[in-house]
Amino acid sequence: MNAPTRRVDAHDKVTGTVRYGADLTSPNLAHAVFAVSTVGKGRVVNIDTAAAEAVPGVLMVLTRVDASELGSPGFVMGGGYGFQSLQPLLDDRIAYRGQPIALVVADTLIAATEAANLVRADYEVEPIAVGLDAEAAETLVQQEAIPLPFLADIVMGDADAAFAESPVRIEATYDLPQQHQVPMELIGGVVGWRGETLVVHEGTQNAGALRGGLARQLGLDPARIEIISPYTGGGFGQKNSLQPHVGPLALAARRLGRPIKFVMPRTQTFHQASFRPASRHRVRLGADETGRLLAAVHEVDQQTSRHDLFPAIYTEITSRLYGIEHFRGRQRLIRTDVQTPGFMRAPFEHPAAFAFESAVDEVAYALGQDPVALRLANDADVDPVTGQPFSSRHLAECLRRGADMFGWAGRTPEPGSMRGADGTQVGWGVASGAYPASVAPAVARLSAAADGKVTVGVDGHEMGQGIRTAIVRLVSEDLSIAAEDVIVYVGDTRVAPQHLTAGSWGTATALQAVHAALRDLRKRLDVADSDPVDVEAAVAATGQAAVDVEATTVAPGQPPEIIEQSRAGLVAFAGPVYPGFTAFSFIAHFAEVRIEPTTRRIRVPRVVSVVDCGRVASPVTAVSQVRGAVVWGIGGALRERSEVDPRYGGFANATMEEYPIPVNADIGEVEVGFVDEPDPLLNPVGVKGLGEVSMVGVAAAIANAVFHATGRRHRRLPIRIEDVL
Amino acid sequence: MRPFSYTAPATVAEAVDVLAASGPGTKILAGGTTLYDLMKLDIEAPTAVVDVHRLTELAAIDTTGPGEFSFGAAARMADVADDPVLRRDFPALAESLAKAASQQLRNMATVGGNLLQRTRCGYFRGGPAFPCNKREPGSGCAAFGGLDRGHAIFGGSDTCVATYPGDWAVALRAFDAVVDVIGPRGERTVAIADLHVEPGDTPQREHTLAGDELIVRIRVPVTSAGRGSTYHKIRDRESYAFALVSVAAGVAFDDQGAVEDCRIALGGVATLPWRCPAAEMVLTGERLTEESALRAGEAAFAGARPGAHNVFKIELGVRTVADALRIAGERAVR
């Protein structure tokens, strides 16, 4: 009843009160800039820093760090902390264009920038392979290269035989390009020392990994490291681990005895941080004449770097979107000369759903069936991979409700049959999506004070998704106290381990810990488990100034000691397969495209998306999450591609001007619906994940709509004007 | 960033004196939206910067006519784009400004400075990692055999196919604008057609102004083809993007309804603002129909020399010309 309906930090954000990492300043702040490699691969044979050092105000030019001072952070997906294992400045190897070769620190940003431009290097240049088809790229079968159970190929029945015997067969290859996250907040922050304690202010999704990784790299006691990241200005997976600039900054700050501010220039964020790797999907779908899907084969080739194996997990959802008896997945990794790619919103699920949901559309047309009806008829009753039930699955309801909201019944099925008066081709497309509902261990600390305020410190990072709002709502609803009386600390290693917030597990993870702590708090306050609480009176009755509780929660089936893995800054989440059930979020997207008759610009005047994310923890921020994801989907379908010149490597359109994220004028109406049924098994709060699933299937719905408009199937993203001329 | 001297003369006369005394590394600063950008990229490294952006005598906008409209070189793109008379009598000119850049950039950028905006070729802007004859004469051109989707299909040479990125100059080219410049040798008037030059063997040379000359104003003869005009810009997103193909088109009809005056200029496809006299001839004296407009488009794109990834600009361009002529025709007084 007291729960806020607005985003709790909206006012502070709009008025600039919120302080992001790089907003901090102090009188003795120094500024850092990296000089970077201008070749795509090779060795630095000579580096000349004389001109750089001569720039007035330059304090330090660091070209090499001894391994005894700074180790590798390890790869976040290989038991480490870094977005990649490669730590620049440790040796003379250049693995990719844009790799840092020198760190310049100066009194001013201007001096540091000027000096960085004056660092000159001579290289021994080696040939590069940067694309999936490059001759020198190396192909690895994932399950052989990384023999871990969750990365093994998913195989059910005999998909190849069942496909061969299927009366209706679709076989097609789909290509998706490299893309970059391009969060508004640039990577960076302020790194400094308070006595023997290293203090890092930086926007991140994973303060725990920054602490654990820096402890490993610098040989420090983690207790002597504080990561403070109350707000992140967009992460989208690019800020999900320790970036290689922080370690050198910590060393430089200690040598200089000054804190250092670093803000990575936009172009460098395309080269010094993760990105969505290129992937290619060969999909085979077999069906009978009634439209029952009999067999599916989904084979994926995904780009990775030479130095790390970024795993491919595309078939986790495609094996479960439908109740298909025979399924075979195969995932391969293609080693190329790039920085290690990584997680970009719906990292595997967006490409996988584009490929698979396009193929399902092709089946519907081959059979002359309605694409919504075909999907409904093939819905899964149980998890086809494990045979166990889903914790909740309302995909059919998403499809039905979405079709209703969209007016799907008014669609004429024939491609090219819907046209505007001026000859504009109109197309309506649908696609489903799913995303694993994972949960991570978390610690929540609650402090109820004599003034009636409740302070919450919990695992979680606020990167715009609205986790603070969700936490405030939970506490204020539970205790029936005003939203203003709930104070939230997230992204801060001083209050909780700060496990990675990603993969759409953030809200479920934080809320179940806060929920558990609320139960303890009520006991300690000696109040009933559900009635409104007069916090001020209840605290007074205890005779103490404040009542503090701490709760630790883990994912279903996880042992309690998993929290130690999180405390070490390592990834420790579980899901989507839990003892006794499997948990996914689901979504259905409906898109309308309009294609001009002459110059063939593709417009998306409206999208309807209906989500099953369990209970909606915060309606205002939830709608915003879905709208933002649909915008990403439109960008992914029609706009975004990180351009690569195979002769040079790196990324050619590495600026906001040239990398075509959508602008407001590209976006029409986005209508959002929620099933809003609490998940009964995953956690007591009933929430699953939302941020990622919201993007899964948008691109397929748009591509399917383009097919409906034109009769032409597009299997390569983005679909640009030259593709539809 | 390199050290440079900075001067902000208080008058045009003083600016002329400062420029006369300046060396070859001097750059004129107006809105700063391109110069600062290129300085940060270390592509421009002026030794002296002469700031004219506060010279109010250069900021006048005069659309009272009747013979011509005049725009001071330091008038802001946003202010000119919003001029109600210009929007009515010369929609192509107003639209070419409104569809350029972002509102924030248009608020700063000037109509004089915009004429000399430098190419967006990624190899030019990418710095010394890439060969570029424009940036480093004789070093080669990475666009050949590279990512040339955005590159020119008209006016290129063996040394350079970098696209002229502006919109405003394309519209001005269609309407025979002239540019008044002042320098130590006095004032002179340069036809917009003579302002930019093809790359040829000297792609580093982009225009015909001397280093000590300052653009004072731009003048455009008022014509009924201006009333029936549009700037039609096709790009990868609906705003804040450079043109894949853009067309400035204007038409005026005679008493019988035939095209009396036709103007067609292209942007996004050439190394400089590209006028299409042959396409204009196709329509002159003819009725404007879908068919004749397409023929004009085909004439406009005859002789295009595409690279590996920009062949589509020919088909897209033909259609864009035809659409632009239709829009212009609907606006023309009959």
TrEMBL record, chain A:
Pfam families: Ald_Xan_dh_C (PF01315), MoCoBD_1 (PF02738), MoCoBD_2 (PF20256). One of its GO terms (molecular function) is iron ion binding. Keywords: Molybdenum, Oxidoreductase. PANTHER family: ALDEHYDE OXIDASE 1-RELATED, XANTHINE DEHYDROGENASE. This is Xanthine dehydrogenase. Transmembrane segments: none annotated. It comes from Planotetraspora silvatica. It comes from the Bacteria. Residues 15-127 form the Aldehyde oxidase/xanthine dehydrogenase a/b hammerhead domain.
TrEMBL record, chain B:
The keyword Signal does not apply. PROSITE patterns: FAD_PCMH. One of its GO terms (molecular function) is oxidoreductase activity. Residues 1-225 form the FAD-binding PCMH-type domain. Keywords: Oxidoreductase. The keyword Oxidoreductase applies. This is FAD-binding PCMH-type domain-containing protein. It comes from Planotetraspora silvatica.
